[in-house]
Write a structure and sequence with these properties.
By secondary structure, this protein is an all-beta fold. It is 0% helix and 51% strand.
């Protein structure tokens, strides 16, 4: 029998049932445009699940998802990468083993030099025959796509590993980290108690030597989230964690706890705090936390680090109405002053919140699954959270297909300073990993009438220095050529009068263009063609 451990914790802020307002969120008048959804890798006969995304400093994308073949009872993980902002994907690694499943994993890419760019994957290997669990951390060379090593392998025997998470500070390294640090956290079961543990590498993932027990309890811990936080006043940096604590092994909902390093990323963790006690209408009704913390060289308006934990809240306690709510702390690196915020709180069924931080615009980025309407909304709020429950809608639905969706995730592309998204599109029985990105082609038509032009071609694409657009004109006409950046900014414009029918070409020197996606449009009269160009130096 599991022993029961009670923790009495003091938090600031409350919201009673009488104070709670459930409102409809307005829709934006002009949502940003998104490109068509992209299948990361079509596969037949396998179920793709639990997709993860990480974006490198140079905009290279890395996606991983787990697979399950119900016929062969083989489970696996596939890792793919894209160097053209998600238009095309190639496989880095893909493996599948009989009687093995990977119930939890996470990825992160680290490094500010292409030659030393490294992908880290932390995963749980579960043998379904022997019931043995192993936690591992694998490293991949991002430039070559080759496997480097498995730097951490912990055999937990029959102790169930429920969840794992990984985070890094490479963009704003903490004091003492060389060249950066990597943190791993995991929840593990035993008959005596459950525990949440962290392991940290302060030498760029070469060795994981700092082990800390964050919490041990007679209750049951499941899903967790891990994030790095830093500001001007907290330049040492901290790792933050949020996790579920359930009162029984069969409980649908439970409590949400959080903790952080006390002083340094490899230091001890503070005593865990019970977040859902902030609001009387959330106590023991929460699950599936997602955590994001401010990380940059600035202080927020409170002179500290902003932190947000989002959760699913079971409003009636009977699974008939899940809302996406959360908690925020404006002085997270040194206080326990947490308050409640609302993302969506109405009669819909809303699930699977995911939140990230954008250090360029200093915004929190949030997505979730609106299952009532089959949508994936994307919303933002500034790090200062002047109005914590008033979020700006960027897109009410960035996915193209209405249907059953799972596990959405949002990450920032630091080259374009726009978001990239992954999620699982669920069919009648199998799931498939999908991708889309926040490419706003303001004023550019994506579907064109090609009666004036034919045989248009842009090569090479992606381009590093020079690219040439070739096209054939069916009639004599005046031609205007315009090049737009991914943000809709006009980069270049050319005009040619009285072009004769026939084959023509225009070359573009892109050596000094920034990495990213551009749209080249050729117009004449009321007709045009548009080609998408990827620049990757």
């Amino acid at each position: 029998m599991k022993k029961i451990v009670f923790l009495a914790l003091m938090l600031v802020g409350s919201l009673t049932m009488a104070q709670e307002n459930r409102t409809e969120r307005p829709t934006p008048s002009v949502p940003l445009k998104y490109s068509n959804d992209i299948v990361i890798k079509p596969e037949s006969g396998v179920d793709q699940e639990n997709v993860k995304l990480s974006v490198a400093f140079n905009g290279w994308l890395y996606a991983a998802y787990s697979t399950k073949d119900s016929v062969t009872n083989a489970g696996g993980i596939t890792i793919r990468t894209s160097r053209d902002n998600g238009l095309t994907w190639t496989t880095i690694d893909s493996y599948s083993l009989v009687n093995i499943e990977y119930p939890a994993f996470d990825i992160v890419v680290a490094g500010s030099d292409t030659n030393n760019l490294t992908l880290y994957l932390v995963g749980v290997n579960h043998n379904t025959v022997s019931s043995n669990y192993v936690i591992f951390v694998d490293r991949y060379n991002c430039l070559t796509g080759t496997f480097i090593s498995s730097n951490l392998n912990m055999d937990k025997g029959s102790r169930t590993i429920y969840d794992v998470a990984i985070a890094t500070d490479y963009r704003f390294p903490a004091a003492g980290a060389s060249p950066y640090s990597i943190a791993v956290a995991y929840t593990v079961y035993s008959s005596a108690n459950d525990s949440l543990n962290s392991i940290v590498s302060i030498d760029g993932g070469n060795t994981f030597t700092v082990f800390e027990n964050v919490m041990a309890t007679g209750f049951y811990m499941r899903k967790l989230s891990l994030s790095y936080g830093r500001s001007a006043s907290a330049s040492n940096g901290r790792y933050f964690a949020a996790w579920e604590l359930l009162e029984s092994s069969m409980a649908r909902n439970g409590h949400i706890y959080t903790s952080r390093n006390t002083y340094t990323v490899d230091g001890v963790w503070n005593a865990p705090l019970n977040l859902d006690s902030v609001s009387s209408t959330m106590i023991n009704l929460c699950r599936n936390p997602s955590l994001a913390t401010q990380y940059n060289a600035l202080d927020n308006d409170s002179g500290s680090v902003s932190a947000i934990v989002l959760v699913e809240r079971d409003y009636n306690g009977d699974a008939s109405d899940y809302d996406v709510l959360g908690f925020y702390n404006m002085r997270a690196h040194y206080t326990n002053y947490w308050f409640r915020l609302d993302i969506i709180n109405n009669g819909e069924q809303d699930f699977a919140p995911d939140i990230s931080y954008d250090p360029f615009y200093n915004n929190f980025l949030t997505v979730y699954y609106d299952s009532t309407n089959g949508k994936l909304p994307y919303i933002v709020n500034n790090m200062n959270l002047a109005t914590p429950s008033a979020w700006t809608i960027v897109s009410p639905q960035y996915n193209d297909v209405v249907g059953i969706l799972r596990k959405p995730q949002v990450e920032i592309n630091p080259v374009l300073n726009k978001t990239a998204h992954v999620w699982i599109q669920k069919g009648s029985s199998r799931g498939i990993a999908m991708f889309d990105a926040e490419y706003n082609y303001s004023g550019i038509e994506e579907n064109q009438d090609a009666s004036l032009f034919s045989d248009d071609q842009l090569y090479p694409n992606p381009a590093t220095d020079l690219t040439t657009l070739r096209f054939s004109m069916n009639t004599d006409a005046d031609i205007n050529i315009q090049v737009y950046s991914a943000t809709g900014t006009l980069i270049e414009s050319r005009t040619a009068s009285n072009k004769k029918a026939g084959e023509w070409q225009e070359s573009f020197d892109v050596q000094h263009w920034s990495n990213g996606i551009y749209m080249i449009t050729v117009r004449s009269n009321n007709e045009s063609i548009t080609k998408r160009l990827v620049v990757s130096h």
